[in-house]
């Protein structure tokens, strides 16, 4: 689960991290009061969407030469004017795709007198099985571009979970980031604080880009991106309350209600599969035969008829879907349950596109019989290769 920048900063502030004063607004009419609450003389108006590259982004409704989704102003009235212009517009960045995201929230923040911009993130490093700091002196930039052009400028420092962030860890991070004096003193407090927030809140990513050194030598979190481990959200009702469903795909929201593992993709062949590995293989073989999957959807091993019905409805609700492939290898998941769910869904929502069904495993003959006797126009497949070829051919006409 992702949250907005202002929410991430509020959370980090609770742990004691240094962040600027700022006020989130949820309507353009709130801008003037928000600006009055800040000391000035520099005001930063930031679009709040779940995507990076906001500063370089462009609003669909504004001329191409207009400023992006993060604007620095030096007069209160300019900050208000920018907020009013940005609110409700569609911001397109390199991460949103051409459709963009509507800006329904803004964050108006006190400006900063910046000396240096650094990069700092925490994530789970799977190569060592530990939480690790990823740091670089090249802050404020696309970290992927830095990794490609100058990988030696990015260093990873993994943390022993039994020890936490030690003095040695801090010194190594400070050495990479070239922190001295006041900034070094701040770092001794900041890096253990970030690690504590990451672990206690079950984050999967905490990215600060940039982490800045102010002209007075102090450190400040200038931007913050936080993602949480969805499997641990039951432990954090306060984090769940931060969820902004307007930033999520409606189909993914619906899938979460039924505990379905669903991710929307850009293709036109809908997939319903049981098991993450089989789902990945199914998507791969669709691509092998020249088409693109419209989704990843794992109904799980213990799916009920109702769950399968819901999954099928979610797939058919996607207007991009021109064909559906159901690929089930029944172990715990019985083929007859899948068949009953598919038939119930088709009878309820109709079938406007080709449907290929491949069943194998527990109760497979019963499952096939249920589908054969349903009277539906369903294409049967013997194995995964056969199923992929049939659905691709059917979609291509």
Automatic annotation (TrEMBL):
Gene Ontology MF annotations: ATP binding; magnesium ion binding; malate-CoA ligase activity; succinate-CoA ligase (ADP-forming) activity; succinate-CoA ligase (GDP-forming) activity
Positions of the ATP-grasp domain: 9-55
Cofactor requirement: Mg(2+)
Residues the entry annotates as binding substrate: 274, 331-333
Positions contributing to ATP binding: 46, 53-55, 109, 112, 117
Pathway: Carbohydrate metabolism; tricarboxylic acid cycle; succinate from succinyl-CoA (ligase route): step 1/1; One-carbon metabolism; formaldehyde assimilation via serine pathway
Superkingdom per UniProt: Bacteria
First-level EC class: ligase
Protein's UniProt name: Succinate--CoA ligase [ADP-forming] subunit beta
Residues engaged in binding Mg(2+): 209, 223
Family as reported in the entry's similarity comment: Belongs to the succinate/malate CoA ligase beta subunit family.
């Amino acid at each position: 689960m992702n949250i907005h920048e202002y929410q991430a900063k509020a959370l980090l502030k609770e742990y004691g991290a240094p962040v600027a004063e700022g006020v989130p607004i949820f309507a353009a009419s709130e801008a003037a009061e928000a600006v009055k609450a800040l000391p000035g003389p520099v005001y930063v108006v930031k679009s709040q969407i779940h995507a990076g590259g906001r500063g370089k982004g462009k609003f669909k409704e504004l001329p191409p030469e207009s400023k992006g989704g993060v604007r620095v102003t030096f007069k209160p009235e300019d900050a208000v004017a920018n907020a009013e212009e940005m609110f409700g517009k569609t911001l397109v960045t390199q991460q949103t795709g051409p459709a963009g995201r509507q800006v329904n929230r803004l964050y108006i923040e006190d400006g900063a007198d910046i000396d240096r911009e650094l990069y700092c993130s925490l994530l789970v490093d799977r190569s060592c099985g530990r939480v690790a700091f990823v740091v670089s002196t090249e802050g404020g930039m696309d970290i992927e571009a830095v990794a490609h052009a100058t990988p030696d400028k990015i260093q990873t420092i993994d943390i022993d979970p039994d020890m936490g962030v030690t003095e040695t860890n801090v010194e190594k991070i400070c050495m990479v980031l070239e922190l001295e004096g006041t900034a070094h003193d701040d770092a001794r407090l900041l890096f253990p604080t970030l690690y504590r927030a990451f672990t206690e809140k079950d984050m999967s990513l905490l990215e600060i880009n940039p982490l800045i050194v102010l002209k007075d030598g102090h450190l400040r979190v200038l931007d913050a991106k936080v993602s949480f481990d969805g499997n641990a959200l039951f432990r954090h009702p306060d984090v769940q309350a931060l969820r902004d469903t307007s930033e999520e795909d409606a189909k993914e929201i619906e899938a979460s209600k039924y505990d379905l593992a669903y991710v929307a993709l850009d293709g036109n062949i809908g997939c319903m599969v049981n098991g993450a590995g089989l789902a990945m293989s199914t998507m791969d073989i669709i691509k092998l035969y020249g088409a693109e999957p419209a989704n990843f959807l794992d109904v799980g091993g213990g799916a009920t008829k109702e769950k399968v019905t819901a999954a099928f409805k979610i797939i058919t609700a996607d207007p991009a879907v021109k064909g559906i492939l159901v690929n089930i290898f029944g172990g715990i998941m019985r083929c007859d349950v899948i068949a009953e769910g598919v038939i119930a869904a088709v009878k309820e929502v109709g079938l406007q596109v080709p449907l290929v069904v491949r069943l194998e495993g527990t109760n497979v003959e019963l499952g096939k019989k249920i589908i054969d006797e349903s009277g539906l126009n369903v294409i049967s497949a013997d194995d995964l290769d056969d199923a992929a070829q049939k659905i691709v051919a059917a979609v291509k006409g």
